[in-house]
């Protein structure tokens, strides 16, 4: 089995419920989708990065692990594109007694289920319609897969949190419908966090907009947080 990696590096986790933790990022190459605010566009092409055997990739991970690394984050691109390879690398990381973390758009619940047994922390990212992740006619299928991934993660008792990126084009109406779908499928007691993440450098939402989205989430989940991308502000990769 081969895997195509774009880069491996140590930095601070800049997003989500574990922001600020020292993390080894394993960025996989390839993503068939294109959010207009994507900040890792160089890793989107399927032929970007470099190809390795699984053994070579695991050796790279081992060689790049630094002292006091809190977790290993499999990111992209989108790691589900290479789900079998991610499963093998995650199994290797767990032998090192280091937590594994999956950062994916959760566009394919079958691929997600392959990776899930070997991951400790799960971020379920729900895309809003205006993100341009998929065209409007395919959005309902995307949402169906994201909801299935959320259900799979919480039923497996993984530490699971939700993230939604908000930009200046995000509309409250569709956002409210999305929340209804999410909390119809999962109890708030089953998730470890709900993150509202503003875009940075493109279509940035105002504070007023962010607070309006927070107010919509609050009745469903009163521990919601608005968290910008920390690494952007401190110049970290």
Tell me what the structure shows:
The chain has helices spanning 54-64, 83-95, 109-115, 136-155, 172-185, 207-217, 230-234; strands at 2-12, 22-28, 50-53, 71-75, 100-104, 121-125, 159-166, 194-198, 225-226. With 237 residues, it is an alpha/beta fold. The protein has one domain (2-234): TIM Barrel (Alpha-Beta Barrel). β8 (194-198), α6 (207-217) and β9 (225-226) form a beta-alpha-beta unit. The longest helix is centred in the middle third of the chain and has 20 residues, at 136-155. The model has no long low-confidence stretch (mean pLDDT 96).
Separation, N- and C-terminal Cα atoms: 29 Å
Rg to the nearest angstrom? 17 Å
Q: Which class in CATH terms?
A: Alpha Beta
Largest sheet: 9 strands, mixed
What general outline do the C-alpha atoms trace?
globular
Task: Output the helix-strand order.
Answer: EEEHEHEHEHEHEHEH
Averaging pLDDT over every residue, what do you get? 96
What's the number of extended β-strand segments? 9
From the helix content, strand content and strand pairing, which structural class follows? Answer: alpha/beta
Total of DSSP H or I helical runs spanning 4+ residues: 7
């Amino acid at each position: 089995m081969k895997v195509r990696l774009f880069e491996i590096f140590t930095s601070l986790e800049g997003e989500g419920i574990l922001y600020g933790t020292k993390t080894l990022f394993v960025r996989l190459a390839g993503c068939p989708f294109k959010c207009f605010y994507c900040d890792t566009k160089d890793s989107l092409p399927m032929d970007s990065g470099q190809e390795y055997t699984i053994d070579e990739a695991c050796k790279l991970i081992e060689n790049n692990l630094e002292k006091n690394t809190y977790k290993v984050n499999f990111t992209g691109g989108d790691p589900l594109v290479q789900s079998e390879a991610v499963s093998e690398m995650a199994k290797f990381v767990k032998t090192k007694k280091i937590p594994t973390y999956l950062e994916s758009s959760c566009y394919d619940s079958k691929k997600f289920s392959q990776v899930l047994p070997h991951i400790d922390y799960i971020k379920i990212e729900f895309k809003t319609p205006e993100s341009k992740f998929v065209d409007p006619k395919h959005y309902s299928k995307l949402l169906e897969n994201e909801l299935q991934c959320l259900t799979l993660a919480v039923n497996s008792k993984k530490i699971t949190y939700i993230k939604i990126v908000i930009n200046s084009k995000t509309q409250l109406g569709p956002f409210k419908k999305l929340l209804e779908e999410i909390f119809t499928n999962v109890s708030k007691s089953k998730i470890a966090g709900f993150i509202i993440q503003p875009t940075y450098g493109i279509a940035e939402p105002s504070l007023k907009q962010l607070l309006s989205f927070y107010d919509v989430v609050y009745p469903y989940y009163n521990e919601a947080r608005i968290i910008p991308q920390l690494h952007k502000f401190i110049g970290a990769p």
